[in-house]
Every structure is written in structure tokens, then in C-alpha cells.
Specification:
Number of domains: 2
Oligomer: single chain
Largest sheet: 9 strands, antiparallel
CATH class of the largest domain: Alpha Beta
Distance between the termini: 85 Å
Number of helices: 5
Mean pLDDT: 83
CATH architecture of the largest domain: Alpha-Beta Barrel
CATH topology of the largest domain: Multidrug-efflux Transporter 1 Regulator Bmrr, Chain A
Radius of gyration: 22 Å
Length: 246
């Protein structure tokens, strides 16, 4: 019998010991990230399935602050009081967004499940087969009853398509995701930190309503939560947006 060369162990399957070690470490990292998201999901009563492992890893790897593109806007006005920023008035231009409507029992469930579906779309599950890149904020449209005392269950989670994809957006494989073109809109925006749930959102709506003092300025039953940090983060950076009446 011919003597087996020491290299034959990895020549057969095309992987060197170094490549196998790198692959093992990558698998461990994917498992670690999936476990983290699954534990966060349980806190929001959301099941994070195993097929999310790859999108989560890809998004985490590509989520350097310098790689994120911010949705472009024109600043119209900044309102301050004793150095504290009360709100900004901004104009967002006409643009295409990938949107998914959710109706879970709790707001946190809706944004987690909606965000996971959008993550799959961003991470290659689209007609281009490419990673589309993260844009911030990810926004959620919420609705309240007429008296602004509680939120309805219907929410829309939306991802702004990067400018290079605005003319020809890649089509989602998921039939629940719809590409919509939103008209140019003026918003009143105020920042807040922490988790977003029905209580914190209603609190922020009431705070900004008091500051603006003019209910006729904005829509009374439709608001936007803009999230600059992924839903798994504890101390999230968020904004509440009021939409100026057309």
C-alpha cells in the first residue's frame, strides 16, 4: 500500500486544519448570536427560529456604525429650551420602503417578528440575491384610538431602501413584505431611550403633544416610532414622529 502523506487528511475534502478551525469558530459564533436573540425573543414572547441564524450573523457582522446609512432628511427647525432639544421639524422626501403589516397581541412581538422578516429580505432573500445593507432608522407606524388613550394592534414595520436601490428595489421572496412608495412628509421628531412598548409609546406621544400644544398641526391617530438600535438592544435609541397634516 502506498504510504499516506500527512497532507492527505485535508486534501481529500479541500479544507486545511486552519480552515476547519475558522469554520468551527464561525459556527460557534452563529450559535452564540442565535442563542442571544432567542433569549431576547423569549422576553418578548417571540420564538426566534433556527433559520434566523445566518441573517442574524450577517447583520451583526455588517452592523458597524460607519456602514449604516441614515434615511436622508432636511432639517427645517430645532426647538430647544435651556439647552435641551424639545423636538426637530424635518422633511423626508418621497421614497420607497419595504413594509410588513403585523397584528400580534403585543407591540414588542410585532416589531420583533416584523424585523426578523425584514432581516431575511435584507440578507439575500430577495430577487438580487445580495445583502442590501442596513439603513436607519427602522420605523414602525402605529395607530391610536380617537382619544389617544391606547394603541391599536395593527402596526407596520418598514425598512428604507438604500438610495442606490430606490429606482429598482429588489423584490422580496416573502409575500408578506410589500414595497411601498411613501410621499414627501414633514415630521415633528423627539428622541427617547429604552424599550418600546405600548406604555412607553403612549407616554412619548403625550409628552410631544404637550410640547407642540397645537393638535391641528399633526395627524391625531397615526404616529411613527423610529428605531436606531436593533430590537434586541436594551438601551435603544428611538424617536417618536408626529406627521404634519397634509
Amino acid at each position: 500500500l502506498a504510504e499516506e502523506s500527512p497532507d492527505s487528511a485535508y486534501h481529500g475534502n479541500g479544507s486545511s486544519p486552519e480552515e476547519e478551525e475558522a469554520e468551527r469558530m464561525e459556527d460557534e459564533e452563529q450559535e452564540r448570536l442565535l442563542s442571544y436573540w432567542q433569549s431576547v425573543g423569549r422576553g418578548h414572547q417571540v420564538d426566534v427560529p433556527r433559520d434566523m441564524a445566518e441573517p442574524i450573523q450577517q447583520l451583526t457582522r455588517s452592523n458597524n456604525p460607519q456602514d449604516r446609512r441614515t434615511v436622508p432628511f432636511t432639517l427645517i427647525q430645532r426647538k430647544e429650551n435651556l439647552g435641551d432639544l424639545l423636538y426637530e421639524k424635518r422633511q423626508y422626501g418621497k421614497a420607497k420602503w419595504a413594509c410588513i403589516k403585523m397584528k400580534e397581541k403585543q407591540y414588542e412581538q410585532s416589531i420583533c417578528l416584523g424585523f426578523m422578516k425584514l432581516m431575511r429580505y435584507i440578507c439575500e432573500q430577495n430577487s438580487s440575491g445580495l445583502y442590501l445593507g442596513i439603513t436607519i432608522p427602522i420605523v414602525t407606524i402605529v395607530h391610536t384610538n380617537a382619544s389617544q388613550s391606547e394603541m391599536t394592534r395593527s402596526v407596520t414595520v418598514a425598512y428604507y431602501l438604500p438610495e442606490v436601490l430606490q429606482d429598482e428595489p429588489p423584490q422580496p421572496f416573502d409575500p408578506d413584505i410589500i414595497i411601498e412608495e411613501w410621499p414627501s412628509t414633514i415630521v415633528y421628531s423627539r428622541g427617547f431611550r429604552g424599550i418600546t412598548n405600548e406604555d412607553s409609546i403612549m407616554r412619548e406621544i403625550n409628552i410631544l403633544a404637550e410640547i407642540l400644544e397645537s393638535p391641528e398641526l399633526y395627524l391625531q391617530d397615526t404616529f411613527i416610532i423610529a428605531g436606531y438600535t436593533n430590537p434586541a438592544a436594551a438601551n435603544r435609541h428611538n424617536e417618536i414622529w408626529f406627521l404634519e397634516r397634509p
